[in-house]
Each structure stands twice: as structure tokens, then as C-alpha cells.
Amino acid sequence: MWRSIIFNRKAQDWALVGLATALFLSPWFFGFAAKPSAWIAWFSSLFIAYLGFAATFSRGEDWEEWLCAALGAGLLFGPEAVGQPFGIAATTTFWGIGAMTMAISLWAVWLNRRPADE
Question: Which keywords does UniProt give here (predicted)?
Fold first, then answer.
């Protein structure tokens, strides 16, 4: 069972949709809904969800996964690059979800490029 989950690229795409949902709800859960960083969370989550759905229904192209990995990198390194203090709740949320988004997206790219006989 675990092998089918680990090596199923569609499972990673649905995991991205789940991360997008968590990112969308995080401003309310962690109390930064009234701050500008909430808008970053909301727009980023909509884009991640769109790319997750697009990857789920694609024919095996990698562009959705690469864009999702880039968006994850933006969330991971964005709070430091902007230089604007987002607050500890938003920064921690962006770091965690950004790192997981990057990891899952790159994992899906690896699975897509792996030979089929493995």
C-alpha cells in the first residue's frame, strides 16, 4: 500500500492541493488575517491549488511541478528576501508550507522522469 502511495504522482498532486488549503486557512488559524502577509498566503494558496489540479489532470508534463517548486521557494525565501517583517506566525507558516511544497513538487518531477520499469 505504501509503495503505491509513494510512487503515485497523483498522490503528490493531491498533497499540493491539501497544502494549498492549509495555507489558505492559516491566516485565520494563526492570527495574521488582518496583516498584509495574509494576502500573500491567500494568493499563493490559490496558485498552488490551481497548479496541483492542473498537474493532477495533465498528461505527465513537468511544467506544473516546476512552477509549484518555484512558488514553494518563493514562500520559503520570501520573508527574508522582502525584508519586511511578517511576524513569527506568518514567517513560520511560509517556511513550513514552502519547504513542503518544494519537496513534494520536486519529488513528483523525479517520479515523472524515473524509468517506468523500476
Answer: Membrane, Transmembrane, Transmembrane helix
